[in-house]
Fold these 3 entries.
Entry 1:
Amino acid sequence: MATSATLMLHLTGRCNLECRHCYMDGSPRRREALPFDWVAQALRAAPGLGIGTLFLTGGEPLLYARFADVARVAAEVAGLATTVCTNATVVRRRDAALLARLGFDAHVSIDGMPGHHDLFRARDGAFRKAERGIGLLLAAGVPVTIVTTISRGNVEQFEQIAGWALAAGARRLLVQPLLDLGRGMAIGDQQLSGEQLNRLILQTSDFGNRSAGRIAASIIGGSKRFLLAHPCAAYVCNGGGCHRGVSAEIKKVVVREDGTVLPEATNLDHRYALGNVADGSLAELVQRYFPAGYAAFDRLCRSTYEQCVPDWPAPIVPWDQLLALHSRSVLPAPVGAAPERGCGGGGAGKAAAAPIWIKPGSAA
């Protein structure tokens, strides 16, 4: 079986920072955490479900009490490519050594030069602590990707951020236009204008070209042109005229810190969930979803696509943002019901992921 699907585990809601744009609302006050035993069985079931990519995130995943145990289980799963998403401020030498030994990658978020980053992260000294953690990861041999959220407040710092990532030794720079999700909704006025987004796209491309292969640089998202030509990239494939010919699919499974298991989008309304970790194993939840809940989710995806994508004013479509916002107003209903109108959200953001899927009936 192909292993091209993605599993994203939000191990904990706890974070040592309280970033202004956090789509997860992570903070030091949160205590939710996934049960280790459930996480372990989900990881071992991954190959049987067609899952080949794993993201360990949070909150801050390194604050999860049994992070090292989770990492070791993941490393034992053949063919599972694992990335740890961290703010790097709490990275210790032993953490870096563990990730290097297990062959993991790291995604580290840096959102501007020191002054802006610390302000955005609501913590003085956050930049320098992250810089130190990145240094430990790189020294241990962990491949590091810098993920930078760009808003109106730091768009003029892009060249500095990119230059810093290159000088630090990162292998890749991912540029995320501010999303209207989580705490980011409180600073929605900081989303980029269309003109700023177009300029950012060009700057990102130019920077990557100038680096002469030393670092890859790209915008997180997909082009509107691509989504119009390939709607199956926007989670709306059910075999009807699709060149991939699948009957139904889930390309990414997201397990939230409270145990809710969601299809595709981290901030999706929980009415569309596969269930909760208390309801059964990951394989069981996936198998139950196709006859019981997939039709409503498919309808949500299709109505969001039809109402939002064709007339979206920017070249980058924030698909996950649109789907999440739309899911709050569109009630799960049988296929064939009249679609509810309206396309919420604005600005730029993450578009659809690459074609990856869990097919109905898959099991560990």
Entry 2:
Amino acid sequence: MSRVVFVLLPGVHLLDLAGPAQAFGTAADFGQPYLLSYVAEQEQVPSAQGLPLIADTEWPELGPDDLVVVPGWRAPTLRGGPELSPAALERLRAHHAVGGTVASVCAGAEALGQAGLLDGRRCTTHHELQDELAARHPRAIVMRDVLFTADDGVVTSAGIASGIDLALHLLAVRHGPALAAQVARAMVVYARRNGHEPQASAMLRHRSHLDDTVHRVQDLIDARYTEPLPLAYLAASAGVSERTLTRLFTRAAGGLTPLRYQQTLRLERAEHLVSRGMTVETAAREVGFEDARMLRRLRARVLF
């Protein structure tokens, strides 16, 4: 079971914390349980909304499959805000160094910057704090007007509710788009938001439309993307002709046909598996390609 450790600082925004915690907690309902932990410099942490929170002062043991998330806090400016201790910053660096994922919501990007994890990497934060983040950490590549970024195991999201988008992206990459869609539906959130960031998961990137017919077909592809899914079968499942489905799908999904959408899901999952040490050949078989040649061609065309 993977663990998610939330690092709480004084003035933490409840939604910055509760959104991702709810998403990872809900994943257990669909067969992917996460152990949630909360750590802080002191046992009681005041929140921005006045509700005091209780946290552990000792960090649990972490492995490469675990996540560390720093929720944001109320901060008109980043300067003068709460800071992690040198020991906690070293924890963040050490977890990333062994292959673990470190993430932030909103102002939490400042903590990642203090740890040096934003240097040379794409990142984002709340739109009111982006200029200051760029000034305080000039080696960071601050992306504006995006919901979240993912770069070499460092994942950052914009303001407040975008932490939910970040969590859904991580669930989609780690467990497949169907799981992320199930979690989103259970939470009754709009699962198809994206900020036109290339690192966004395919499930989010090509779901920003309102065509129910296409969403039903995408639900089917999401759940069975490793299987052969002929266009005739997809069209029959949707109750439309093949020609109509192709027309509706390409219009709604940014020009992708159902086959290209399925290939995008396979490629995204294969990239994750390769990043975890799996060979290209094994990853290709795992996601449904008959051999690795197609995967290699797709990887050469697309940069995630």
Entry 3:
Amino acid sequence: MDKMNLLSIVTVLSLFISFFLAFFLLTVKTANKTSNRIFACFLLISAIDTSEPLISQFTDGPSNLGIFRTTLAFLQIPTFYLYVLSVCYYDFKWKPEYLVHLIPFLVVNLAFVPRFYAVDLDSKINFIINRQNMIELKFIHWLFHFQISIYFTAVFILLRKVKKLYLENNSGGKSNSYNWLFQFASILTALYLIVILKNIFKFSDYPYISDWIKFGILALQPFIICWYLYKALNNPGLFRNIDSKLKLVSDLILEEKNIEPETLNEDLSKLKKYMAAEKPFLNPALTIQDIANAIDVPVRELSVLVNHQLGQHFYDFVNTYRIENAMEILKDQSKSKVTILEILYEVGFNSKSSFNTAFKKHTGNTPTEYRKIL
């Protein structure tokens, strides 16, 4: 089996998986239709972009449609960025300003008009033969590399901000859900860096290396997509926890006037009394808004108090009370047969991993170790 046949087989498998998953996302009944549609678009665009080894066997030469297909690569990363936005913010909606993400794609296609789209077949062939000297292709490749850098930087900044917002406003154990979206973004970043390497070899004296890298990318792509969708479909409630109108405490501090020390002390006293008497931390879905409403303190003021003045994220602040409660249960000899799993749910955690992590951070031991040394 020669290299071209092997490349075609891998391409067919990759396309089948991508189109099948895109069809599934577009037809499955779910409350998160927007996110699914955006990711389906990402899959379809990526599939069309990587279909060149297969399409080249059915075409005799360069065509406008063929070049247009390659320019779809400029829609891949913007689509992924919008997908990340849609899964992080539960109030995500389409906005006219999102059309700005089409600009690189439109610019690239306009650049091809004079010497490719608007010329005859012979001129197109000459353009491809002399592609290493064509300023349009050099410009497009540099623009693509620049786009990758900008968008993936924006994705990682967004994920960092959203995770911090979650920790500042929620007490649930879903903050780790952002970790594997970060992992997926990291894998995609590495994949696109390999694409950049492929493009460098494509315009060098070693174009055959570019073909082997292309083969590797096609082989990896379906595995990466299947891994991500497996995680996402098995954890449908992990994301969409953040209101896009929320602000980081660091921004609130800049906007707020200095709060009087007397007010801070009064609010802190209210907060501690409420936490001790009512034990709201037993609610695994507790938010800072819930407590603000209960003690009649503005949520912005309470957020600054907990996340800035006390030097803790709201997430860690609430978990401290949960761990203290769990420690009391573990010390109680009459409850020695209560399992760790039962304890973690009783004190307000909703996952064993988050409970173990918080417990060890607070005590230096896991719950099991702590029980043994008592």
